[in-house]
Write a structure and sequence with these properties.
The chain has 133 residues and is α/β, with parallel strands linked by helices. It has one domain: Beta Barrel (Barwin-like endoglucanases). It has a six-stranded mixed β-barrel. The chain is globular and about 35 Å long. It comes from Aquilegia coerulea (Rocky mountain columbine). Keywords: Secreted, Signal. One of its GO terms (biological process) is systemic acquired resistance. InterPro entries: EGC1/2, Expansin/allergen_DPBB_dom, RlpA-like_DPBB, RlpA-like_sf.
């Protein structure tokens, strides 16, 4: 019985450490959204990647190296003055499938569906915390 308690405690501590590491390694930026059609995409052509997707700005694009990466994006605040834009737990995980061209208004351009899961689309642009998962 004591071994089980030690294992549970050890697992809890490992989870806590990993959680803290992910918070410490987060980057900050802004998110906008784009609307369908989502294909073709710069990464996968005409492959349908669903709707939990995003386009990467130059900040994370890295000459296509971002293609296929998964990012955890958390809404932290409004960028355009909409009071309390964040929804639910304000977190979504998306796959990078496209490139947000020069002049892109955000660090990451979420699909409209992904954006709507974490923020009010009327806000248009939000402040985010993001990290690769």
């Amino acid at each position: 019985m004591a071994v089980v308690k030690m294992s549970s405690t050890a697992l809890m501590m490992v989870g806590l450490v990993f959680g803290l590491v992910s918070v410490v390694s987060a980057d900050y930026g802004t998110a906008t959204f784009y609307e369908p059609p989502y294909i073709p995409s710069a990464c996968n052509g005409y492959k349908n990647d669903g709707v939990m997707i995003a386009a990467a700005s130059d900040v994370i694009w890295n000459n296509r190296a971002a293609c296929g990466r998964m990012y955890r994006v958390r809404c932290t605040a409004t960028k355009n003055g909409v009071p309390q834009p964040c929804r639910g737990n304000g977190v979504v995980t998306v796959k990078i499938v496209d490139y947000c061209p020069a002049g892109c208004a955000g660090t990451i351009d979420l699909s409209k569906e992904a954006f709507a899961m974490i923020a009010d689309p009327d806000s248009g642009k939000i402040r985010i915390e993001y990290n690769q998962v």
